[in-house]
Design a protein that fits this description.
362 residues; alpha/beta; Aminopeptidase; 2 domains; six-stranded mixed sheet; 11 helices; 41% helix; globular; binds zinc ion
Length: 362
């Protein structure tokens, strides 16, 4: 994924400009609600029965890394995808794949569970970055990364969830493993190619049917800290962070806001579907050759896995409608948008002066 950090001043300036702009231009179709909102129904207390096992999940992380770096189009990725499918099928999840060609490369998304009409989509990217362009040693920049955290951690957590979610989950939940998330700015590739393709090929009925999308990315870091990703749907973040608090994981699921991340939840947000990115922004080995299993931990996988398992149990008892608030704009787009009123205001002032000048010279 691509990290975009907002400074304190832009954090303050942007919402006020958005508010002014949305009033000015009457953005009917896009909602900018800052407040989180849900249907506020009283949710019956749920007695969680959690079975997620971090140690077992960690073997799935190591299992993926054993194939080596897994960039799109590589044999390693094909073999890793086959491994993911065999584990899912072993846990009796029906599996289908979605294949297409992008930049002369065959890509493959893997879908399991409720494929025709999912109400919940739990996803992670299973490809890894083809280049270690953030490695401290420039000589390593052309090398592909192993992606223990950036790729394998989210996938491993979903693979473990496949075995512990209740049987009825398969009828309403899709486990989605997307290809080509992490090749952006390399050889003309974009970021989030697999998730974009997936959302582009959903019907309107399928989009409307999805209540929540939960993206797991870079959440296996041994020193795990999960601030609230800024473009995620606030009501959905609230609900998941509340579950984390009930499970006494508030030391990991932080109440603070983190940066804005361009990640696989973005195409869903753009389609008006509630989505959250559970991600640790602060990982010193990001896009380096050091993103290896020893930087990750079973405890981190277990914390996130248990929270997602508990949240899904809550949903199976009392489904929630999460209003898809939040906004899909990148910080760059927000800055450009914030300039629109200034430009319009400038034009009006120029026009008034011009008319006045003309009047005076007449
Ligand atoms: Zn990455």
């Amino acid at each position: 994924m691509n990290f975009l950090r907002l400074t304190q001043s832009t954090r303050f300036i942007i919402p006020s400009f958005i508010l002014a702009l949305s009033l000015l231009l009457g953005f009917g179709g896009v909602s900018f609600q800052v407040q989180s909102s849900s249907d506020n129904r009283a949710v019956a207390p749920v007695q969680y029965s959690l079975e997620f096992n971090g140690t077992r999940a960690f073997t799935y992380l190591e299992g993926q890394c054993a194939f080596g770096p897994r960039p799109p189009g590589s044999n390693n990725l094909t073999e890793c995808g086959d491994y993911i499918i065999s584990v899912l099928e072993g846990k009796e999840w029906p599996v289908q794949t979605q294949t297409w060609i992008y930049q002369e490369t065959q890509l493959r998304n893997i879908m399991a569970g409720a494929i025709a009409a999912p109400q919940y989509v739990l996803l992670a990217h299973y490809d890894t970055r083809p280049i270690a362009d953030s490695d401290p040693d420039p000589l390593n920049h052309s090398q592909p990364i192993l992606g223990a955290n950036d790729g394998a951690s989210g996938v491993a957590t979903l693979m473990e969830l496949a075995g512990v979610l209740p049987e009825e989950a398969k009828a309403v939940t899709m486990l989605l493993f997307v290809d080509a998330e992490d090749s952006g700015n390399y050889n003309g590739w974009s970021w989030i190619v697999g998730s974009t393709y997936f959302v582009d090929h959903l019907s309107q009925a399928q989009k409307s049917n999805i209540r929540a999308v939960i993206l797991l990315d870079m959440m296996g870091d041994a020193d795990l800290q999960l601030p609230r990703e800024q473009s995620s749907t606030p009501a959905l973040v609230d609900a998941i962070w509340q579950t984390a608090s009930e499970l006494e994981y508030s030391n990991i699921f932080l109440s603070s806001s983190g940066p804005y991340v361009i990640d696989d939840h973005r195409p869903f947000l753009l389609a008006g579907i509630p989505a959250v990115d559970i991600i640790d922004f602060n990982y010193p080995y990001w896009h380096t050759l050091e993103d290896t299993p020893d930087k990750c931990s079973a405890a981190s996988l277990e914390a996130v896995g248990c929270v997602v398992e508990a949240f899904m149990e809550t949903q199976f008892v009392t489904p929630t409608f999460f209003i898809p608030t939040g906004h899909p704009f990148t910080p760059d787009q927000l800055i450009l948008l914030s300039m629109v009123p200034v430009v319009i205001g400038g034009c009006i002032i120029l026009l008034v002066y011009k008319l006045k000048f003309q009047k005076n010279t007449e």
